[in-house]
Amino acid sequence: MEVEYSKEEEMEKLLEDLRKSSVRKEDWEFHDNLKPIYSTGIGLNKSVVEEISEIKKEPDWMRRFRLKALEIFLSKPMPTWGPDLSGIDWENTNYYNRPDDVKSKSWDEVPDQIKDTFTKLGIPEMEQKYLAGSVAQYDSEGVYHNLKKVWEDKGVLFMDLDSAVKEHPDLVKNYFCKAVPATDNKFAALNGAVWSGGSFLYVPKGVRIDMPLQTYFRMNGEATGQFEHTIVVADEGSKVHYIEGCTAPRWDKDSLHSAIVEIYAHKNSEARYTSVQNWSKSVYNMPTKRAWVDENAKMEWVGGSLGSKVTMLYPSSYLRGRNASTHNLNISLAGPGTVKDTGAKAIHLAPNTSSRIVAKSISIEDGKAIYRGLLRMNKGAVHSKSHVQCDALLINDESQSFTYPHDEIYEPTATFGHEATVGKIGTEELAYMRSRGLSEDEASSMIVLGFLDDVMKEIPMEFAVEMNRLIKLEMGKLGSVG
């Protein structure tokens, strides 16, 4: 028999759940004393790039690609149209750290200190309960990958990209840096030069995976960089849900995360990418994420961006085939002293394509949240349609929110809509919740989670729980919530 609650009882139940929740900063911001077994040292030049390729025993085509990408990186200026990036210390950053020589298919074989880190983050338990496969990366290298036999038997490939280059070189070469070439932007070129780790996921024609696959990235070192490259291929008629999680401890010196994610949704396929990023506030987060979406294919982006000092992130979908569609849902939380310059891009290149972008941002104290998006309807994308919705919530008087939409409509038969709202937490709502026994931080947390509800419903339950905890942690500032 299903129990029905009145609105009053539902509120009391929510309040009780919030009181019971426990959030600890040390759950994410701990760091290890593990020393890498190999490092290229600080700074970046041709010798460092060749050294990375040599230690990985890569084919010559990859070594040549890296060197060309380095030339592009050095020739491109820093972007000046967004947040201040002058704090990135190129000369004193370490671009490659190898934690261990082990690449294991069993958690028992992973070195104890690295295994303990992922155990604290709950990764082995999550794999057993929820996932079809898992890859774990520590600093610059994948240390573990595994795929359930039922999917292995169907021809699914899932491993770190370094292993894929060795085991499936022709397949990797078909996709590597096709959607995101090294010439795309300065940070994509940097990744092309020094990339290490990431994932390679290939789902064969007609295979529909009913459980998510996950990669978890852990950046442990100080003044270091993580430059993973992920490729997800959903072949014709297939279905896949890929999830990424990221954490890094807090250090005095800043680090850099500059990843590439390429997703190829072939004809009649369905691909979903979910990312929960919780970098510490000593990380510049500068990834490039892009999907090619073919005829009748569906691409979904679901993202939660928390932590980091500065984030610039704009997942993009190129709708290349008739009836291709994309849906982008993004949560961005700009905590004290942080800048979140995030958004999405949808490029309509074919008839009857559709896109929907929903962006939700929260600014706390002096945090700055920026929506920066691009919507383009090319000539010939007849009867295509798009809708963009940007909602911002300001927590304090000094909080800031900005919206910079860029819309280019070249097809007269296309339809397009854009809406944006900005609101503040009201004193009446806070007063009501405080009268029910909540602190101001707890009350604010509940209002924020309600504001994000429509996006949180799209995140798998186990990851929505983590997002709730992370948001309440940020709202509590010093971990006082709960």
Let me know the number of strands. 26
**Cα distance, first to last residue?**
32 Å
The tally of structural domains comes to 1
Shape: globular
Mean pLDDT, to the nearest integer, reads: 83
Determine the fraction of residues in helical runs and give it as a percent range: 25-40%
* Beta strand %: 25-35%
Helical stretch tally: 14
Poorly predicted runs are 1-8, 10-28, 477-482
Write up this protein.
There is one protein chain. The chain has 482 residues and is α/β, with parallel strands linked by helices. The protein has one domain. The protein is 27% helix and 34% strand. It has helices at 7-20, 26-29, 46-55, 60-75, 112-120, 123-130, 149-152, 161-167, 169-175, 186-194, 427-435, 440-451, 453-456, 461-475, and strands spanning 38-39, 97-98, 133-138, 141-147, 157-160, 199-203, 213-218, 225-226, 229-234, 239-247, 255-257, 260-265, 270-279, 283-285, 288-293, 298-307, 310-313, 316-319, 325-334, 339-342, 345-348, 354-363, 368-377, 385-394, 400-409, 415-424. The strands form 3 sheets. Strands 5, 6, 8, 9, 11, 12, 14, 15, 17, 18, 20, 21, 23 and 25 form a 14-stranded mixed beta sheet that branches. Strands 4-3-7-10-13-16-19-22-24-26 form a 10-stranded mixed beta sheet. Strand 3 and strand 4 (141-147) form a beta hairpin. Helix 11 crosses helix 12. The chain is globular and about 65 Å long. The two termini are 32 Å apart. Residues 1-8, 10-28 and 477-482 have low confidence and may be disordered.
